[in-house]
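Hi all, posting the design record for the shared folder.

TITLE: backbone redesign
STEP: 1 of 1
STRUCTURE INPUT:
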């Protein structure tokens, strides 16, 4: 069992962007000292859900404030990148972090955001995703690559060989065959019951193909099967719930912002406590949170917990307090229980 942090880096009505970034750097430093495995960022465009439109910049800053914490994006949206520049950014980040980069790759979940980069349909986006990923693999394996008809010499390679561990999060059940076959770390966006079924499917596919040649993530011995979890922790149970529900509703509005702006229906079922919600809220004292988290781990079958401490309208001080209480009173027991 591993424990990390996931962060959309949302826009704030109270804080300027620079203050939002400073808060995230503070959280990364605290997570590093507390022994979290990784800090993972989202990438979105044109929405208050995220002002992290270029994850590499924030990850580079985090790499200089931390020493052990692994750092990455879930995901770098490959259709939005020039393949050659993406390769070089990955190499630089892996070196700046001393080989601590976790590399999430995907197409991006929002067709509305993809249009900013000229991706007018899924097939165009999918083709550019494959082109960028194929170029990345080729560049990692060769001192010279042909790009746009020109032979380009490569003087930078990732620290981690053959490249950083790969992640492919998804809300699409049809992607399990691909992620399991290649051994990608993954994070599933679904109800608890559905997550358990998908993780079981993943494990079956992975066992069948783990010895196959040509697997993208063959250098990773044991894939992570992750879930994100919104958490608000306080010694005062009512305070945690009240702040948590309010912050969740703000985050929910951010998540649905683009679809509502374009007159499209909400397609993701979100409720802080409903059984069918794909992302729930756990709020309360450390004892309450621990008990509920232990149930979630059993219900889903996950082996990696991605904590969401800073979200919606939650004050930075409360997000930091949640992180600190979790690290001191919850995380050691979660990890120890799973190891046993």
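Okay, here is what came back for every position:
SEQUENCE:
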């Amino acid at each position: 069992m591993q424990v990390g942090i996931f962060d959309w880096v949302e826009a704030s009505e109270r804080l300027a962007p620079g203050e939002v970034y400073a808060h995230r750097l503070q959280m990364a430093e605290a997570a590093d000292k507390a022994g979290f495995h990784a800090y993972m960022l989202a990438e979105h465009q044109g929405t208050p859900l995220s002002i992290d439109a270029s994850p590499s910049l924030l990850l580079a800053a985090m790499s200089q404030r931390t020493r052990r914490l692994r750092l990455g994006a879930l995901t770098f949206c490959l259709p939005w990148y020039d393949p050659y520049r993406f390769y070089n950014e990955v190499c630089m980040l892996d070196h700046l972090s001393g080989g601590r980069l976790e590399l999430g790759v995907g197409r991006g979940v929002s067709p509305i955001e993809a249009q900013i980069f000229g991706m007018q349909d899924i097939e165009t986006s999918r083709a550019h995703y494959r082109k960028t990923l194929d170029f990345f693999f080729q560049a990692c394996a060769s001192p010279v690559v042909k790009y746009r008809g020109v032979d380009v010499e490569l003087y930078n390679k990732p620290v981690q060989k053959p490249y950083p561990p790969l992640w492919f999060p998804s809300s699409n059940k049809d992607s399990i065959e691909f992620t399991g076959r290649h051994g990608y770390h993954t994070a599933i966006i679904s109800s608890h019951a559905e997550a358990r079924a998908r993780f079981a499917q993943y494990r079956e596919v992975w066992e069948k193909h783990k010895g196959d040649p040509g697997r993208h993530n063959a250098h990773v011995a044991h894939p992570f099967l992750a879930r994100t979890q919104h958490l608000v922790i306080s010694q005062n149970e009512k305070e945690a719930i009240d702040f948590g529900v309010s912050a969740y509703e703000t985050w929910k509005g951010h998540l649905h912002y683009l679809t509502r702006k374009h007159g499209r229906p909400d397609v993701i079922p979100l409720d802080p406590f409903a059984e069918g919600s794909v992302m729930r809220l756990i709020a309360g004292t450390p004892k309450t949170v621990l008990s509920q988290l232990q149930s979630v781990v059993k219900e889903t079958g996950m082996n990696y917990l991605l904590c969401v401490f800073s979200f919606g309208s939650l004050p930075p001080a409360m997000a930091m307090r949640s992180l600190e209480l979790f690290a001191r009173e919850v995380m050691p027991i979660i990890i120890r229980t799973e190891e046993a």
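COMMENT: The CA atoms of residues 310 and 319 lie 5 Å apart.
Let me know if anyone wants the other runs.
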